[in-house]
UniProtKB/TrEMBL annotation:
Residue span(s) of domain N-acetyltransferase: 14-176
Organism: Leifsonia shinshuensis
InterPro entries hit by this protein: Acyl_CoA_acyltransferase, Bact_Acetyltransf, GNAT_dom
Stored CDD domains: NAT_SF
Source organism, top-level taxon: Bacteria
Annotated protein name in UniProt: GNAT superfamily N-acetyltransferase
Single GO term (MF): acyltransferase activity, transferring groups other than amino-acyl groups
Keywords: Acyltransferase, Transferase
Length: 176
């Protein structure tokens, strides 16, 4: 599913891998960036994230939960260029794609960051279920176009967006 014009693994000036606790400061930096850049895409405000203690970031980056996995696209200097995660709630048969973000300068097919991150989440999710779910804000047209290009389709399920209940989160699913 990776576009033919995207750089191959040997051509990339970054690597996609699961996070480890030592990544906590870089993960915190990209999380704050993503909340400032695209606030409608996440279920947390920038102010709330800025108030978290260091231990919160260490726990999230440690990646020790069996029901979730956090991936980063990481530059040689340790900066996170993008992130995506998978979460499999005990009350759902299907895992969810969460925390999707790529720094603005690396968005688009020619860079390959977004596809590489999604491929990592798909590889993590595939043994857990036959499909991957996500929820996207109804006004996030760029994300919707990307998800559709990668095989996601609307399920018809909607939820009020928790930070503005006058708008909706739209559920999408892709077969694995």
């Amino acid at each position: 599913m990776t576009p033919a014009d995207a750089p191959g693994p040997g051509d990339r000036p970054w690597v996609v891998r699961p996070s480890v606790e030592a990544d906590w400061e870089a993960y915190r930096a990209i999380r704050l960036e993503m909340l400032a850049d695209t606030p409608i895409a996440f279920l947390e405000t920038l102010a709330a994230a800025q108030a978290h203690p260091d231990e919160h970031w260490r726990r999230r980056a440690a990646n020790t939960s069996a029901s979730s996995r956090l991936f980063g696209a990481i530059a040689p200097d340790g900066r996170w260029l993008g992130t995506m995660g998978g979460f499999h709630a005990s009350d759902s048969p299907d895992p969810h794609l969460v925390g999707v973000y790529v720094t603005p300068s690396l968005r688009g097919r020619r860079h390959g960051v977004t596809d590489a991150l999604l491929d990592a989440v798909v590889d993590w999710a595939r043994p857990r279920s036959g499909r991957l779910l996500l929820e996207v804000h109804e006004h996030n047209a760029a994300a919707i176009r990307y998800y559709e290009r990668r095989g996601f389709a609307f399920t018809g399920r909607t939820l009020p967006y928790p930070l503005d209940r006058s708008t909706l989160e739209l559920e999408m699913a892709a077969a694995l």
